[in-house]
Design brief:
alpha+beta, binds flavin-adenine dinucleotide, about 15% strand, four-stranded mixed beta sheet, four-stranded antiparallel beta sheet
Length: about 375
């Protein structure tokens, strides 16, 4: 087995590293989950797009470089190592876009993808509702046929919509056939949020950021051309999105490799006689981040050979989300009394810790992932 990168891939890595060294904002941008931070992050996204680094693995016609999945992983490693800004476009480019490549019509692809990659349109995920989270098939928001206008009238409410307070568009699941079996009567719709009949209300997060939102629909409209994957076929389309969310694209190893590296640098600042138990935890976390990298290489090998990620992506989701919590817990333990600082160079550890706590919840809770692993990977009985 050859685990090294090719000379062309190493050249690509050097190019990416050079560009990021010259362009990553310093000082870092404010959080992209605040109104001002989101605006600044969109400027950064535009810069990435103009340099054709926003979506390297996409076809050139949509702003990409036709890069292989290996090159995409290299890009991600370099991106996070350089301390580059969070991707406020992530729910579009990493969740919706793979689904549009799979299910979208050529017209939808041309209308949506390049504007998504440049940040001109920003997409949020409208799935969860006050009475439907883990039980996604329990959604109650409806889309009722409007023959006169050639589309669908939306009513209901979505919640926990990440950066929904700032986004221009939403991809959502709506019930289109109330009489069908729960999983059969849903449709995946692509909604323009800037229209009468939609109210977006921000919800403040634990750390004070205000990008989370509730979205209310009161006879809002979606044309037929914005149905993704067919009427009443929404469940299958949504499952493709969750594959991306749990599996490869949302949380690449680069993110955790970079955090592990920063953790080592933090530990090195401590006196040599600091707790050996803490040092062991740092080493173990670094090993875990490396293990995730190698596991991802195995997944990518399977994908490029024509396989699919399958229900194993639930194992990946549990692993990265729990690793993220561990990495940040160790950092706070290393920092001791400094862990509570909310300003200055060290404050990102506390903010990162607060966000890491949500990892076992979003993208499908880890309890649900463990159910999937038990039933679909290990073949255990449902009860
Ligand atoms: C930071 C963050 C960002 C998010 N962003 C978005 C977004 O952009 N768009 C969006 O649509 N949603 C988003 N969500 C919502 C997220 O998808 C839901 O919170 C999640 O699916 C859980 O649903 P719930 O909150 O309704 O909890 P519930 O489904 O009510 O679950 C409550 C508890 O019961 C457990 N549980 C439920 N059913 C089972 C079962 N069958 N077996 C075992 N345990 C079970 C759960 O694991 C959980 O611990 C986000 C959430 C967070 C925290």
């Amino acid at each position: 087995m050859d685990l090294s990168f090719t000379p062309a891939e190493e050249t690509f890595r050097a190019e990416v590293r050079g560009w990021l060294a010259a362009n990553v904002p310093n000082p870092p941008l404010p959080s992209g989950d605040t109104a001002e931070g989101f605006r600044l992050h969109l400027e950064w996204e535009r810069k990435l797009f103009d340099a054709r680094y926003a979506v390297v693995s996409w076809p050139a016609e949509f702003g990409g470089r036709n890069a292989s999945l290996w090159e995409w992983l290299i890009f991600e490693e370099e991106y996070w190592l350089a301390g580059a800004p969070q991707r406020v476009t992530q729910n579009g480019i990493f969740l919706l876009a793979p689904t549009i490549f799979e299910f979208g019509t050529p017209e939808q692809q041309h209308l949506i993808l390049a504007k998504m990659a440049s940040g001109e349109h920003s997409w949020c995920q409208g799935w969860s509702e006050p009475n439907a989270g883990s039980d996604l098939a329990g959604i109650g928001s409806t889309a009722v046929r409007d023959d006169e206008r050639g589309g669908w009238r939306l009513n209901g409410q979505k919640t926990w919509t990440t950066r929904g307070a700032f986004c221009t568009h939403l991809f959502g699941l709506f019930r289109t056939d109330p009489n069908a079996e729960r999983h059969a009567g849903m449709t995946y719709l692509l909604v323009d949020l800037d229209q009468p009949g939609i109210i977006v209300r921000g919800v403040e997060r634990l750390d004070g950021d205000e990008g989370f939102a509730e979205v209310f629909f009161d006879d809002a409209f979606v044309p037929d051309s914005m149905v993704l994957g067919g009427v009443n076929k929404g469940w299958n389309v949504a499952m493709a999105t969750t594959g991306s969310e749990r599996g490869l694209t949302l949380r690449s190893p680069g993110r955790f490799l970079a955090t592990a590296q920063k953790l080592i640098e933090l530990a090195q600042q401590l006196p040599a006689d600091a707790s050996p138990e803490l040092h062991d935890r740092v080493v173990q976390a670094w090993i875990d981040a490396q293990a995730y990298r190698w596991q991802t290489f195995a997944t990518v090998t399977k994908l490029v050979e024509g396989g699919t990620a399958g229900p194993e992506s639930s194992m990946v989701k549990v692993f990265w989300s729990e690793l993220d919590v561990r990495l940040h817990e160790i950092a706070l333990d290393l920092l001791g009394p400094h862990a509570e600082l909310v300003d200055g160079d060290l404050a990102h550890w506390l903010k990162g810790y607060q966000f890491s706590l949500s990892g076992p919840i979003y993208a499908g809770t880890n309890e649900i992932q463990r159910n999937v692993i038990g039933e679909r990977v290990l073949g255990l009985p449902r009860k």
